[in-house]
Write a structure and sequence with these properties.
Number of helices: 33
Radius of gyration: 40 Å
Shape: elongated
Number of strands: 0
Largest sheet: none
Low-confidence stretches: 1-30
Distance between the termini: 152 Å
Helix content: over 70%
Mean pLDDT: 86
């Protein structure tokens, strides 16, 4: 008997089991319907969640004291669901409301925050630059952010000025074997520069290099700035010459530092190095050069550079014009300054408050008060006048020419118009009143300044002390001196001179001797007239021995004794004992 084929066997099997195919189809169809139903339920659940998130977001954003009613508003909803908090933070788009909601959740019994939700909220706080809130959240929850979030947190701390906390976070990254990105290192370097902590710059930069992190332009600029802040220009120059090719900003910082040092030879070298490294000096570079030359009293050279720039095709901007105009005004070259003034207007650059104030200052410098007032009124018409700096320029200029009443009228106008006065305003007026001998008005202004909580300057005290000492009111002078010391103000050397001469006028030579001893022990150089006043006063009270001691100190410093003082000394010596007079005279003449 022949063996049936395999195909006929399968057919026979199917005929004997007619429901097999149907049962299998039912099974497949059942799984498909189950998947669809599950997907539908999941989608519905997500829609319900999103709807509740929207409603809760609206309530927490608009309803006061929502914490009292939120549970009753949603009695059947589980706020502890981790996905809800994440969705809420993203939808709310307000880190502080989200944080408030988190604190409310934390107050509910049984709530345990999960790491994922904490990270979402933490990221939101960091993105909002809420460094203190993020720091507090991190400490209270004690969760460990992922490395990317921690790096963003470091940048947030740096931006917020919490530099030491940021440095600690670098250590946290290192513990988990993660090296921060160049961007994160640079944020810390920039924060260190802003804080004036160059020690942190070198610590961070050293760690960065040890970690084999690749430096970029921003890194170089931070290091250059740190070198310049510490006036380590040689090392800075070497870095720019031999290191990676930096942007112009790095060279400009070095050039600015060299200009401040008045080291124009090395500044020229830096410009040549800049060109040699294929970095063409730009307008900002030359602005530093011109500004540096003008501030160093080399305004004519600055003006030559400025004109040379224009001849070579550079187009100065308003800042450049204002810088040059200010330099010319400092040199009292108002003719050239006016030419540039009209030139910049023709080029389409309207003068701003700084340009106006530079011209006003220049007119005061040459004593042309009429033009200064004219320029000031024009500035006011343009809307620039009612600012503290503009008033200060006028007040200083008027005081320098003895026009104290006009200056004080402007001071009172500031108060009427709500323009704030600063320490410069008060100090200028105090000094102005003192120069005119109006001590009471100057002292009243000083007390008004102190009542407003504004820090005075040592110059204001010095002017008052000088005039009070001239009047011989040494008790008031000492009161002002003590007040100045309590406020941490360091008196200028000549303020001691005022006190000594004041005591001498009152015949208090011994107190004057004590003040002189303080000056000499502090390595300060008393004035020549101070020595002479004290010698004359000591001779008047018959203290020849002390007078000779003061004379010895005077000659040691290098001063010479004038004829009038010498005559008084010889007369006193002759009165006492004529025999050693010749010996003393020989010593005086020898050292004189």
């Amino acid at each position: 008997m022949a063996r049936p084929s395999s195909s006929s066997s399968i057919i026979s099997f199917l005929r004997q089991s007619p429901n097999l195919g149907i049962r299998n189809r039912s099974l497949v169809t059942g799984n498909h319907y189950g998947d669809v139903e599950g997907a539908h339920q999941h989608k519905q659940k997500q829609q319900d969640l999103e709807e509740i998130v929207k409603r809760v977001s609206e309530i927490t954003r608009t309803r006061p004291r929502w914490e009292r009613t939120l549970l009753s508003d949603f009695p059947n909803f589980n706020f502890f669901d981790p996905s809800f908090l994440s969705h809420f933070v993203k939808h709310q788009n307000n880190a502080f409301i989200s944080l408030r909601f988190f604190h409310w959740l934390s107050s509910q019994s049984g709530f345990l925050p999960d790491s994922s939700s904490c990270n979402v909220l933490f990221d939101a706080l960091v993105a909002a630059d809420a460094c203190n809130a993020a720091k507090s959240f991190l400490e209270s929850t004690n969760f460990n952010p992922n490395p990317d979030s921690r790096q963003a947190y470091i940048r947030c701390l740096c931006k917020g000025g919490l530099l030491e906390e940021a440095i600690i976070e670098f250590g946290q990254l290192k513990e988990v074997g993660v090296c921060a990105s160049t961007k994160t290192w640079n944020s810390a370097l920039k924060a260190s520069i802003r804080a004036g902590r160059t020690d942190f710059v070198w610590e961070l930069y050293g760690e960065m290099m040890n970690s084999k992190v690749e430096a970029n332009f921003d890194t170089v600029e931070c290091v250059v700035q740190a070198y310049c802040d510490e006036n380590r220009v040689s090392e800075c120059y070497k870095l720019l010459k031999d290191g990676i090719v930096p942007r112009n900003a790095a060279f400009n910082r070095l050039i600015s530092r060299l200009c401040k040092n008045k080291d124009f030879g090395r500044m020229s070298d830096a410009l040549h190095t800049m060109i040699g490294r294929k970095q063409a000096p730009d307008l900002f570079t030359y602005q530093e050069v011109v500004n540096g030359l003008c501030k160093a009293g080399k305004g004519h050279e600055g003006f030559r550079v400025f004109k040379d720039l224009k001849d070579r095709g550079y187009a100065p901007d308003r800042v450049m014009y204002t810088t040059m105009i200010h330099g010319l005004c400092e040199m009292r070259c108002l003719g050239d300054a006016r030419k540039l003034w009209f030139e910049m207007i023709r080029k389409g650059f309207l003068p701003n408050e700084y340009t106006y104030n530079s011209m006003i200052h220049g007119y005061f410098r040459i004593g042309n008060l009429q033009e200064a007032w004219k320029m000031y009124r024009e500035m006011c018409d343009k809307g620039y006048g009612e600012k503290t700096v503009s008033y200060n320029v006028m007040i200083k200029g008027l005081c320098s020419h003895g026009r104290i009443k006009e200056a004080h009228d402007l001071f009172e106008e500031m108060s009427r118009k709500g323009v704030p006065c600063n320490h410069f305003t008060y100090n200028t007026l105090v000094i102005g009143f003192c120069k005119e001998g109006k001590i009471l008005e100057g002292r009243n202004l000083l007390y008004e300044l102190l009542d407003r909580g504004i820090q005075p300057s040592a110059a204001s005290y010095a002017s008052l002390i000088e005039k009070i000492c001239e009047e011989g009111n040494m008790e008031n002078a000492k009161i002002l001196w003590d007040d100045m010391q309590k406020r941490g103000l360091k008196p200028a050397v000549h303020t001691h001179d005022f006190m000594i001469t004041g005591f001498c006028k009152q015949g208090c030579a011994i107190e004057g001797m004590e003040w002189l001893a303080t000056m000499l022990s502090s390595k300060w150089r008393p004035g020549e007239k101070t020595f002479e006043s004290l010698i004359q006063c000591l001779l008047q009270i018959d203290r020849l021995d002390y007078a000779l001691l003061v004379l010895d100190s005077m000659l040691n410093i290098g001063y010479r004794l004038r004829i009038s003082a010498c005559n008084s000394l010889v007369a006193k010596l002759c009165e006492k004992n004529p025999h050693p007079v010749e010996t003393y005279l020989e010593r005086i003449l020898e050292r004189n």
